[in-house]
Design goal:
single chain, mainly beta, Jelly Rolls, four-stranded antiparallel β-sheet, 14 strands, 0% helix, 50% strand
Length: 155
């Protein structure tokens, strides 16, 4: 596995957009150049999220060069507004076309409200930073001990 890009954010992001086409930018990775046959893994983590209303769905979409490539995470609000909920994690495996790619995560809600994605300070005292990471697919393939013929596999 080779890390191609990593970015983190240490402040909260408030998302008020109401469509995938106008979604609010949460975090973008640096541009990477790919050859067209490289399989990559895009990961996103935020330690918490919140919703100011009781009716909308909160959504996170993954974008490549400004175009959505799909909703990566979605959650319906509870019956009462809440300041903070558990973390968000998603991972997407894909093989992009040859050329430069900039991946980012954007958020939106299904109706007027505010959806907040947490991004805390690096030095502690609250939520950890939210982050996006792009890696190549691991070439490590665990072996079953019966097929190992004397070599040692360390996990």
């Amino acid at each position: 596995m080779l890390e191609l890009a990593y970015a983190q954010k240490v402040t909260d992001t408030e998302c008020t957009a109401t469509s995938e086409a106008t979604a609010d930018l949460i975090l973008a990775a640096a541009a990477i150049n790919l050859g067209g046959s490289t399989t990559i893994i895009v990961e996103f983590v935020a330690t918490a999220w919140g919703q100011s209303s009781t009716s909308p769905n909160s959504n996170l979409a993954l974008y490549d060069n400004g175009s959505s490539i799909g909703i990566a995470w979605s959650s319906r609000s509870r019956s009462t507004p809440f300041a903070e909920e558990g973390g968000v994690f998603f991972r997407r495996r894909l093989t992009p076309s040859a050329g430069s790619h900039t991946f980012d995560v954007r958020g939106y809600v299904s109706s007027a409200s505010t959806f907040t994605v947490a991004g805390g300070p690096v030095d502690g005292g609250g939520d950890l930073p939210c982050w996006i990471r792009i890696t190549t697919e691991s070439e490590f393939v665990p072996r079953h001990p019966a097929h190992d013929h004397g070599s040692v596999t360390i996990f």
